[in-house]
Amino acid sequence: MGRLLALSLLGIALALLGERFLALRNRLKASREVESVDLPNCHLIKGIGLYSLSCVATEFYVTRAQELAGEEAGAEDIDILPNGLAFFSVGLKCPSLHSFAPDKPGGILMMDLNEENPRALELRISRGFNLALFNPHGISTFIDSDDTVYLFVVNHPEFKNTVEIFKFEEEENSLLHLKTIKHELLPRFIYVADILAHEIHVLEKHPNMNLTQLKVLKLDTLVDNLSIDPSSGDVLVGCHPNGQKLFVYDPKNPPSSEVLRIQNILSEKPTVTTVYANNGSVLQGSSVASVYDKKLLIGTLYHRALYCEL
Asked: How many Å apart are CA 267 and CA 271, to the nearest integer?
């Protein structure tokens, strides 16, 4: 009787797991293909596929021991300062995701969008920070009253969760590591992407730091990182229209890329338009899009990054 009960429970558990797997597969939108929406004046960013330090290290800074030998490292998240300096988090590793450079640690790159032909350069990180375990996944910037720039980078050392705080030292093209934050509950922002539910949650932040949900915007794609167009307030979204291809990588049928622009997100009927879409022939697995002065940057989980002049 006990054995029969155990087999019955096992059967029920397998059935539940099967149901959950089918639900997850449906949420990943494995079958949706995209029609290309090209932008003029685009080119892949130099320095993303092959990034290394361009300056001689001093005693205070650590250097990259190896170059990436031409392998794509991705640009999972991008944040742009009001002065046109863009920061990229690169080299994300995840057990369920494909990686073109699985043995290379992550890094932070910078690109000056005011230059005529901008190029991404890796920022040096101060000695004492464990660069070998740097696995950046998301980046935000903050400028204080003294115009000092701080970077808040979500990190997954050994696939755990931390937030690393850096001070940007522009004259040195470097980052001074200030603090590692470890906490079970990390802060949420006003716009929150629910990737598997294909939703964006709009939250109101109150003076006491409490959040109230205002609305939920449903989209027919997997939504990844969100950014705000500073000139219009529009929300730009890096998306995965066929997410299953991210986890079952096939170079002959790679994951697509999609960038959406959401106008008037607080209105009853926000306007959602496709800014860029590609079937993977140029860009695979778009995770973020950010704009500055009619210049658009599109990053990916593990592939390349695109620079467009709008």
From this structure: 9
The position carrying tokens 């998240």 is 77
**Rounded distance between C-alpha atoms, residue 148 and residue 168, angstroms:** 7
- pLDDT tens column, 151-208: 999 999 988 888 999 999 999 999 999 999 886 544 475 788 998 889 999 988 777 7
pLDDT in tens, 230-268: 888 899 999 999 988 988 899 999 999 999 999 999 888
* Degrees to nearest 5, angle at CA 46 with 42 and 51: 150
CATH architecture of 42-307: 6 Propeller (2.120)
CB atoms within 10 A of CB 105: 19
> Between the CA atoms of 277, 279, 284 and 285, what dihedral angle is there, to the nearest 10 degrees?
60
Tokens of 232: 């219009």
Name the most confidently modeled range: 118-122, 160-164, 282-286: 282-286
Torsion of CA 168, 50, 230, 178, to 10 degrees: -20
The active-site residue, picked from 43, 98, 137, 206, is 137
Catalytic (active site) residue 201: no
Q: What are the backbone angles phi and psi of residue 194, rounded to the nearest 5°? A: -105, 100
Q: Which residues pair with 111 in a beta bridge?
A: 86
Nearest one of 225, 62, 68 to 137, comparing CA atoms = 225
Q: Over the stretch 36-78, which tens digit does the pLDDT of each residue have?
A: 898 988 988 876 754 433 333 333 333 333 343 345 678 889 9
Read off the amino acid at residue 225.
Answer: N
Burial 52-67 (b: 16+ CB within 10 A, else e): ebeeeeeeebbebeee
> Do 262 and 268 form a contact (C-beta atoms < 8 A)?
no
Rounded CA gap, 11 and 243, in Å?
29
Contact 254, 241 (CB under 8 A): no
Q: Per-residue pLDDT for 290 more than 70? A: yes
Contact 54, 121 (CB under 8 A): yes
